[in-house]
Task: structure prediction
Amino acid sequence: MPSINANSSVNVELVPNPATDAFTVNFNAPQEGNTAIRIVNMVGQEVYKITLGNMKNGNVNIPINGLATGVYIVTLKCGDISVAKRLVVQ
Result:
């Protein structure tokens, strides 16, 4: 069963946070899995999505200069594990 847990075995870091023009998603999972990153605004609308393929770890730079100031939820899905983090865009 998939889990959604910030304390899961996938380590995810958003740098910098708060961000202005871009941020990097740093992640490290215990095993490879089909990996995707999704950004959702506080209304629940998907504003960004990228599918990365079969990965175990990585550093993905994401431009956000088109996003409005506010709070977003960044979800990294690696295989059956999903980790959600809060991102502040200034």
In short: Residues 38 and 49 are 4 Å apart (CA to CA). The chain has no helices and six strands. The mean pLDDT is 91. The two ends are 36 Å apart (CA to CA).
